[in-house]
Write a structure and sequence with these properties.
The chain is α/β, with parallel strands linked by helices and about 210 residues long. The protein has a single domain, classed as NAD(P)-binding Rossmann-like Domain (Rossmann fold). The chain has eight helices and nine strands. The protein has a three-stranded parallel beta sheet with strand order 1-2-7, sandwiched between helices. The protein has a two-stranded parallel ribbon with strand order 3-6. Strands 4-9 form a two-stranded parallel ribbon.
């Protein structure tokens, strides 16, 4: 299970050679061990120009250094499983849910982007789906939560489910002013009939919050 990666999207934009060392050469080293590899990839391998979900046969066109290095890492995997997922969150580590909970505890309002659409995916559900994938052939698999939303909608859901009285002020990606470009639309769905199906992102959110 190769989940190690440089996931600092803006940091990768400045230090692409470092992100490449981790996401590409690191993956090459893992594959060289000779064991079957499950490589976790990202929706950021796509450019976000579609307005319907991306499926496995869609052509990647990453716009950021992070997306480029993750796509290059995919090409090192060979006969393993490439699992593309999106907007991952869980009860540990640095992720959007934990960040919003921290902000919501001490602020009355947060500014959140409302012009990016994706499918927030709970890592616990992704882990369960990975078990199913190991019984299936290798290759590229899109495994993400059902449903879709903007970051602002996701933030409102987090505050609602957590019982926090914090307002969400919608802003644009341009207003946020991050160094690395993000896909405006990056919902993932599988075109493979036997692909694992994950619960709705809101169910994942509730499952995550119940473990915090």
């Amino acid at each position: 299970m190769h989940a190690a990666a440089w996931t600092d999207v803006d940091g990768a934009q400045e230090w692409e050679h470092v992100a490449e060392a981790v996401n590409v050469r690191g993956t090459k080293n893992v594959v060289a061990l000779g064991a079957p590899v499950v490589y976790y990839s990202t929706d950021y391998v796509f450019d976000g120009m579609k307005r319907t979900p991306y499926v496995e046969s869609d052509t990647p066109n990453p716009q950021s250094a992070y997306g480029r290095t993750k796509l290059a890492g995919e090409k090192e995997v060979g006969d393993g499983w490439i699992v593309r997922s999106s907007w991952l969150f869980g009860r540990t580590g640095k992720n959007f849910v934990r960040t919003m909970l921290e902000l919501g505890e001490r602020q009355d309002e947060v500014r959140v982007v409302a012009d990016q659409v994706g499918c927030p995916t709970y890592v616990g559900h992704l882990a369960e789906a990975t078990r199913e994938l190991l019984e299936l052939p290798g290759g590229i698999w899109h495994v993400a939560a059902e449903g879709e939303c903007t970051w602002a909608e996701f933030a409102r859901a987090i505050f609602e489910e957590a019982g926090l009285d914090c307002r969400v002020r919608e802003i644009t990606t341009e207003e946020l002013g991050r160094p690395a470009p993000r896909p405006a639309y990056s919902v993932l769905r599988s075109e493979r009939e036997d692909a694992p199906r994950l619960p709705h992102w809101r169910e994942g959110l509730r499952a995550c919050l119940s473990r915090l």
